[in-house]
């Protein structure tokens, strides 16, 4: 979470591509690890699918514009969790972030932690 927030806060000192894409990819990667932590016995493949579906549902929910939901999105926490506006690019960023974290989980973490 800290890295994602830092990518937004210190965006002026980061390369433009990192500022534009890194936060969303990290958010989706965090969702993947959250799924893996909550559902310990779930396969990695299912964790990927659940994470992608969850992330995409949150993104598509941004098309719903009702006053109470917009009020929630106008808060810092609401914006961090629910986002503010639908972007197709975010769907791609989420998918890439989840896949990157999956590969870290599958090929790097398993060497150090027996899961």
Automatic annotation (TrEMBL):
Organism domain of life: Bacteria
Record has Transmembrane helix as a keyword: yes
Transmembrane segments: 17-35, 47-68, 91-109
InterPro entries attached to this UniProt entry: DUF2809
Keyword tags: Membrane, Transmembrane, Transmembrane helix
Pfam family name, one: DUF2809
Name by which UniProt lists this protein: DUF2809 domain-containing protein
Organism of this sequence: Paenibacillus cucumis (ex Kampfer et al. 2016)
């Amino acid at each position: 979470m800290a890295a994602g927030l830092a990518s937004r806060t210190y965006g002026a000192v980061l390369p433009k591509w990192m500022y534009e894409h890194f936060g969303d990819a990290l958010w989706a990667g965090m969702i993947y690890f959250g799924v893996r932590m909550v559902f310990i016995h779930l396969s990695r493949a299912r964790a990927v699918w659940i994470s992608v579906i969850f992330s995409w549902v949150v993104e598509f929910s941004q098309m719903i514009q009702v006053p109470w939901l917009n009020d929630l999105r106008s808060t810092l926490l609401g914006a961090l969790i629910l986002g503010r506006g639908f972007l197709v690019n975010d769907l791609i960023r989420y998918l890439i972030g989840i896949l990157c974290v999956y590969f870290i989980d599958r090929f790097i973490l398993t060497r150090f932690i027996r899961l």
